[in-house]
Amino acid sequence: MRVPVPDELLPAEALGTVHFVGIGGAGLSGIARIMLARGLRVTGSDAKQSPTLEALRALGATCHVGHDATHVEHLTSADTVVVSTAVRETNPEVVEARRRGVRLLPRSAALESVMQGRRVVAVAGTHGKTTTTSLLTVALQHCGADPSFAIGGDLNETGSNAHEGSGDLFVAEADESDGAFLVYSPYAALVTNVEADHLDNYGTEEAYRDAFDLFVERVDPAGFLVVCADDPGADRLATVATERGRRVVRVGEREDAEVRAERVRFEGTRSRFEVVDRGRRLGEVTLQIPGRHYVLDALAALACGLRLGHDFDRLARGLGAFTGTRRRMELKGEAGGVRVYDSYAHHPQEISGDLQAARSVAGEGRLLVAFQPHMVSRTRIFGEQMGVALGAADAVVVMDVYLAREDPDPAVSGALVAATVPLPAADVVYEPSWQATAAHLVERARPGDLVLTLGAGDVTLLGPQVLELLAEREEPVDDGA
After folding, report:
1. Residue 189, class by beta-carbon neighbours within 10 Å (0-12 exposed, 13-18 middle, 19+ buried)?
2. Looking at the domain covering 12-108, what would its CATH class be?
3. pLDDT-based confidence at 325, cuts 50/70/90?
4. Nearest 5°: phi and psi at 324?
5. Which region among 24-33, 64-73, 200-209, 278-287 has the lowest average model confidence (pLDDT)?
6. Domain ranges of the chain
7. pLDDT score, position 30
């Protein structure tokens, strides 16, 4: 559902009681946390019970399971309803709020309301936003900055996706999927990459790129923009930003990068690289997360911290202490000598990056992947590329499409992806039954292998099932003797 952004964006303290429709989601729950920390009255509803709702209740929010018009009966025209993009126009709470003349805000406007008065650092890009925002946040915390933050995933260190800090900085993940990042006016911005996505919203690749052009115009001329120059889309954006008078910091492995990563190497679950800033060698960074894409994310976060005036050694220690974000190459456990990881990758480029990282972790073991395509429109457009990217695994189980906010299309299923995976037919399975997927993985897994569940939907729930079946397989059989 698209809720228009009002012409006047009020600070959070002027919003009255705030009710979140879809409060359990990654975006809305973080905003709710910050509002609760500031003493606002917060209520909300979500389709199902979750640990997120329990955590918000513990902070003082009134959270309902299920959607009902009675949940907004306490609101007046001086109060506010924040609506998730996943919510439909017919939602009874939205219908009732409109009937009552209650202020409606999209997620982007609600986030802007809590960022007002802070020096905002917005992290954007097609891929890597959550990890890069998290890396920057933890690095700044190790510098004593205590920034506020709102991230699309939970930090492993805190178990939270948002925090009301004591410093003047506010680090925010700036989502482009629905144009939300065009509402913000950051002091500084970071763009990881620009590659066509969310064409269900933008229609064309050109329109998608144009949105990023508009985003860099919103960066404060007194601030700066960090871009990963190794990515063609981001590098083009750097040129656009320079032409529009913004200070640009290019980062990457390229020789002409202002902040450069050298001697990049991968050692199991760790990544190491040396940092050169404008020709001066600063030192080495060691990450507890594997993969070249994470090196570039960390380099961009480091460059941002440096340009904000922070010390390299402290930033590097912070990056080294970062243990990851939930659902980004997250270790779920090990059973029967098989390690099980989960990751959010749902775009061909993200799949490629995570499989490269998983290969480093797997070592001599095989890589077995369960992939759940996310959204009908994305699968229709990128399904073939998804399949090709999955070819880097040793065996693949493709699940059916997670529908998210779209209606099903009989012509678009996981079979479209499975058909293009360049592996022997025996190593590729299309399994439309969610419940049957774990068994396929366990049948193929042997000690030393790594199982990776991939996708932005409920595939994340598959890992525990795989671990349970692996453990059962290892249990000795009682022969009655």
Report:
1. buried
2. alpha beta
3. low
4. 115, 175
5. 200-209
6. 12-108, 117-321, 330-474
7. 94
Question: Which listed CATH number (1.20.200.10, 3.40.50.620, 3.40.1190.10, 3.40.109.40) goes with 117-321?
Answer: 3.40.1190.10
Residue 397 pLDDT? 95
Q: How many CB atoms within 10 Å of residue 408? A: 11
* Residue 393 contacts residue 476 (beta carbons within 8 Å): no
This prediction's pTM? 0.78
Beta-ladder partners of 18: 42, 80
How far apart are alpha carbons 347 and 343 in whole angstroms?
12
* Dihedral angle over CA of 332, 272, 278, 168, nearest 10: 30
Q: Which amino acids are annotated catalytic? A: 129-130, 173
The kind and range of the H/E element at 424 are: none
* Separation CA 172–CA 213 (nearest Å): 19
Sign of the dihedral through C-alpha 248, 252, 254, 260: positive
Q: Are 3 and 98 in contact (CB under 8 A)?
A: no
pLDDT at 144 over 60: yes
Cα distance between the two ends of the chain: 63
Kindly state the helix (H) or strand (E) to which residue 170 belongs, with its residue range.
strand 169-173
- Mean of the per-residue pLDDT values of the chain: 91
Token pair recorded at residue 366: 């095989």
From residue 436, give the alpha-carbon distance in Å to each of 53, 98, 430, 457, 458: 29, 43, 11, 16, 14
CA distance 419 to 430: 8
Confidence band of 326 (pLDDT split at 50, 70, 90): low
39: phi then psi, degrees, rounded to nearest 5:
90, 10
* The pLDDT of residue 103: 95
Q: Which two tokens stand for residue 341?
A: 């990881």
pLDDT at 479: 53
- For the structural domain made of 330-474, what CATH number should be given? 3.90.190.20
The values of phi and psi at residue 359, to 5°, are -60, -40
Q: Whats the size of the chain, residue-wise? A: 481
Which residues, including other chains, have CB under 8 Å from residue 123's CB and lie 6 or more apart?
A: 129, 132, 133, 136, 171, 172, 173, 174, 189, 190, 192
Task: Name the residue with tokens 């460059």.
Answer: 303
